[in-house]
Amino acid sequence: MKIKEIIREAFSLRNDTASHDTIKTRLVDDGQVTGSNMSILILAMLVASIGLNMNSTAVIIGAMLISPLMGSIHAMAYGAATADFHLFRKSVIGLMFQVTLSILASTIYFRLSPITIETSELLARTTPSIYDVLIASCGGLAGIIGITRKEKSNVIPGVAIATALMPPLCTCGFFLARGNWLRFASAMYLFFVNAYFIFLSAMTILLILEVPQVRHVSPEAWKKLKKRVIRNTIIVIIPSLVMAGIMINSQNSSRSTSNAVGAIENVSKQVKIIYPEIENISLGNMEQMVNNKKQTSKVFIITVKEPLSNEKKEQLNKWLNAIYNEKVTIIQRKK
């Protein structure tokens, strides 16, 4: 047997696939908008809202696990893959109803809550990026593969945690209650990214597994659908790429500032050892006009017990120039 065939067999999705009837039953039943599902949805919303309000990661994870939102997304994917447009429309309407209910209910909760601080857990749901696209895609693939096995896999709880759906909606409720429309839009975009790529991943796997179609769709119609999906996916991804760029620049800037502070502290310790007369060192920037151009140079302000001799000052100046690879100005201040 060739290596290519061995690899193909090892990663085949068809070896332990459940019957098409079983797959249909699981996905369609999980997508039903029933009274019990609505009760669980409201409870999940309350748990997530309290967790976000109290900045409790453990409570938020609990809300992710009990939320029934993913069932509607999987039912949408099954409807699209099987060309069952009635099921697809029904699932879309069901998901929109659940989303609207979650946002409105969480808005009411946060309007009544005496805690109005923007916790780190809330703010974490307002910075979606390309990494969230990757997480949702990988989680969506893992989830649908697990559901379509003969023995139902236990990957769904992990997928629910990785591709959070309820916390972003509750974050929308918080910022809607506070009237912060920019943060509301950011959290809503995160939910949309997660839902869209879970849907896309699930539909792709179902098409690979060749689930039977309810009605015949011509090759031309499938081509048009593929083009539309590709176009929509690109449109959805673009804002996440921009956000990722902003996030990376921000982290690099923060790292540079941290490194600079560390370097100054290290230099300060060494200078105090070599020159005991120096008691304190601070670093600043001096701007001056040279040939009608603004130039910035580093200035070391040193507080001394006794003024440094010209020789020591010259030595210190040369040393600092070598460390920072630029001209450094030293200003002495007597304590």
Automatic annotation (TrEMBL):
Keyword Membrane attached: yes
Transmembrane segments: 33-52, 58-80, 92-110, 130-148, 155-177, 189-209, 229-248
Pfam families to which the protein is assigned, alphabetical: DUF389 (PF04087)
Record's keyword annotation contains Transmembrane: yes
Keyword annotations from UniProtKB, A to Z: Membrane, Transmembrane, Transmembrane helix
Top-level taxon in the UniProt lineage: Bacteria
Protein name per UniProt: Membrane protein
Lineage: Bacteria, Bacillati, Bacillota, Erysipelotrichia, Erysipelotrichales
